[in-house]
Amino acid sequence: MTANHQTFLPRRTFLTAGAATLTVLAVPSRLRAQSGEPVLIGVCGPLTGQYAQYGAQWKKGFDLALDEINAGGGINGRPLKYVFEDSQADPRQTVAIARKFVADDKIMVEVGDFSSAASMAASPIYQAAGMVQFGFTNSHPNFTQGGDFIWSNAVNQADEMPLLADFLKELDLKQIAVLYLNSDWGRTAKDILVEAIKKRGCEAVAAEGYLADEKDFRSAIVRIRDAKPDGIALVSYYPDGAQITRQIKNAGLTQTIVAGGSVYSPKFLELGSEAVNGVLTTVPFFPDDPRPEVQKFVQSFAAKFGGQPDAYNGRAYDTFILLATVMRQFGVTRQAIKDGLGKISGVPSVVFGTVKFDPDTRRVANPITSRIKVENGKWVAWKKS
Amino acid sequence: MPSWIGPWFDYTINGIVVGNIYALLAVGLALIYGVSHLINFAHGSIYMVGAYIGWLSITRLGTPLPLTLLVIVIGCGLLGVLVERVALRPLRDAPRIAPLLSTIGVGLVLDQAVQLVFTPDPRGVPSQVSDWRLAIGGGTIGALDILIGAIGLASALLLYLFLRFTKLGWAVRATALDRDAAQQCGVDVNLVNSTVFAIAAALGGVSGLLVGMYYNNIDPNMGYHAGLKGIVAQMIGGMGNVPGAIAGSLILGLIESYGIAALGTSYRNLFAFVVMILILILKPNGIFARGRSLPPEPLTGTFIAPSAPVRLPWPVVSAAIAVAAALPLVVHNGYLLQTLGISWLYGVLAISLTLVAGTAGQISLGHAGLLAIGAYGSALLAMRSGLPVPVSVPLAGLITAGLGTLLLYPSFRLRGHYVTIATLGVGEIVTLVILNWDSLTQGPIGLSAIPPLSAFGAKAISGVWIYEIALVVLLLVAGLQHRLLTSHLGRTMRAMRDDDVAARSYGVVLDRYKALAFGMAGLSAGVAGGVLAHVYSYINHETFTSQVSLLALTMVILGGLGNIAGAVLGSVLLVGLPEVFRFAAEYRMLIYGLALLLLIRFRPQGLLGTQ
After folding, report:
1. Contact A243 B346 (CB under 8 A)
2. Which of A178, B165, B513, B548 is at 20 to 30 A from A102, Cα to Cα?
3. Among all residues of chain B, which has the CA nearest to that of A97?
């Protein structure tokens, strides 16, 4: 593969012998086709603390994307790299990291943080410095209102939740009970979902918010049961989603469970074991999705890490591919990235099919969704029976 | 059965099932507290380690359940002995607060080490118990529920027999009553402590695996919240009371379940903590104690040992202030200035805490609650009433002083560890009220677009401005507090800390001086919170968690209790150290935990000494 790409290298990147030697030493041998100073993305996210698992998922997605980008010539011959600063998703640290990133003129764009409380505390700093803050998991409705340098390709709840409501309606579920994680994300999603359910002539008979550290949902499930729903909707991450499903089954409830796409993960199957069979969800991608960009992603993920990717791997991967494309097309400066994000279109994406931003909201509309369900401990495409 | 009873019956069963799980942890905590008067914050981490040992043993060695449990008992028992030997025994003669901090450090190190080895991903634990279930009312209970209950009861019974009828058990009880006397009678106190830690850790490890199996989920962070619930449960049952811990756990489970029934799932913890505070006020020895006389345990004087503070001469202090103020002229590194700016603001928080914890002797683990009240107060005043930021921040300080004192008033009659737990509860209550009081705080959505700090009409977003404003606030608060401490008020508060009975006999009305200390502390913490809200521009219920309280207390103890300069030093170190260790990425918190342990080990009275 290396030999093929050598021809793409512009000669001007061999600026000084010193720089070239340094880079050759620094990058792995199979990437020696590229030279020049690396282009850096600053990632601010949790590697330790209570959200550490999500930071670990991000890294896999980033690394996979980097392999692909750098094998394809990097950013116009310069290798793309990232600096991952551990923030523990704590605002005290994200603001410090933000100052560090904006002062480092090698860093072109920032990606993260995981939670909105942590990301939004740092937004004023990125905005004032003129550096794009790209919060790819920040679905908080006010996140991108932090300024014109604050962008997000997190799936907008206003897009995703009505699709979930459509699914519920198609399943002929009229009386829906909603269980949601009581965080900024879960709460926003719940509000939109309940609204969408009503609009479709159905009824949300109960809405129970639970706390992030909760493990036991028995009593919440009694409340759900007594609301007599014919379907249960979950707005959860995969660990809590799996837990709730197990406990619903143990309580003897048999209603259909439809969950938001955030439960999509191989871990959901491991943690939920047999109980999660029959759970339905809508996701942007799943392993059997025939789209070529998905197949490429799923296969290279399996080759590099083994196993199947989850939603966070996919979003992290997508984000780096997107930013690399923007930099290739519009140039490698902080301003060019911001301008480029507003103009770019047609970037292939695992989550969206193709990406185009609305320059006013700085978000991407219309994610692709497939309807899938768990059958015999595997995610498979759902077909209307 | 009438139809309305059905759900209540189910809620009762659910409460008992959950309480059953809490009991496993509470028993171990109660045992350690009973013998060494120590709230073991590492207990949750040992519970987590037990779960991982069990997981390894099942998935790698394929051990059957009884053997798995034996492996955990041995593994965690040894770990308990190690923790006692390395982190606690050397601190035997240190101030009583040092071992507490040491357990926090041990917990941090264990959590991080497991996370590094096993990755932070949650894992499923294959259940080795039959999935037989029994229908009760509208729900079911499984074989695992019964096993957990049986292990809880059996361990309590075995402990009782051990303490009552064996020679080592007598030694344990003698040590619990009076360590020095026991030692003089020939009891090997170290052996006793090792035994107790081994038993408690083994029990904790077993419960970790059982709970992991129960939820089919273990992760490296599972210990913290579980440990917190265990502490609340044993508080309800009476600190150090083993059968009480079981009953307290069941009661806690029931209260939570009924709370959910009455108001909804996100009120669960609010109920738990409110009930805990009520019990602390009405029956501080737990609901099974006769009367409400305070326990003979922590006399404040022994809780915080006096030591000679390091005297900082005025020229040194003035020079340090001058250097700090002039720093932005020389250094143009925004990252450094931001980190120091945040350090100054946390320094204000630490100064506030050092007044109540150090000078007045009320060790508080709920100081983040005051910070949150100040932050929300100032943000809401600025956003809803349109007040300029320089007005809203001091006003928020006053609100925090009033509200904070009122909230903490119930803890005034408590002492030692009881104050610590009560304030922990108050801190949690503040967070949970913020989460649930939607109409005022916008609940989990939080407050965004909070106006930035401004000085003389100009917005101060740049790092230099934030740095200087934070420094000015810090100097004002430090100056005010220094003035307070050198007056008769400071003397009276110290008297109250060193011996409250003597202070009372000299005519000191304790409540008034405690209220004064908490009021003053609320003012400065509220101002710090207010400034932070405007620096962050976004806050929600997760911004000021109990972790922040723990951090603040660590700063104060590290710097030296009651010591203003020490509080600032502690803040700079603890905000700065994680930044210094940044190069170590995933290893950073592990290094931080080890550094903390070493500091406590070799300078338990704090870097600058207690004042």
Report:
1. no
2. B548
3. B335
What residues does CATH 1.10.3470 cover in chain B? 7-115+144-282, 312-413+442-602
Q: Residue B411: name the closest of B511, B546, B507 by CA.
A: B511
Chosen for mutation from B222, B266, B270, B532 (greatest number of chain A CBs closer than 10 Å) is: B266
Please give the Cα distance from A66 to A339 (Å, whole number).
Answer: 23
CB distance A166 to A176 below 8 Å: no
* Tens-digit pLDDT profile for residues B156-189: 888 888 888 988 888 888 887 787 888 888 888 8
Contact A182 B18 (CB under 8 A): no
- Tell me how far the alpha carbon of residue B148 is from its chain's centroid: 27
| Calculated CA dihedral for residues B215, B218, B222, B223, nearest 10 degrees | 100
Query: Given A48, A123, A270, which is nearest B589 (Cβ)?
Result: A48
Tell which residue, B338, B345, B428, has the closest CA to residue B393.
B345
Calculate the dihedral angle through the C-alpha atoms of B421, B427, B430, B434, rounding to the nearest 10 degrees: -130
CATH assignment, B312-413+442-602: 1.10.3470
Burial readout B238-269 (b: 16 or more C-beta within 10 A, e: otherwise)? bbbbbbbbbbbbbbbbbbbbbbbbeebbbbbb
CATH entry 3.30.70 includes domain B7-115+144-282 = no
Chain A residue nearest residue B15, CA to CA: A219
**Full set of structural domains in chain A with CATH:** 38-155+292-364 (3.40.50.2300), 158-283 (3.40.50.2300)
DSSP at A78: B
| Interval B475-514: pLDDT, tens | 999 999 999 888 888 888 888 887 778 888 888 888 888 8
Its pTM stands at 0.85
Of B22, B14, B266, give the one whose Cα is nearest residue A213: B266
How far apart are the C-alpha atoms of A161 and A232, rounded to whole Å? Answer: 14
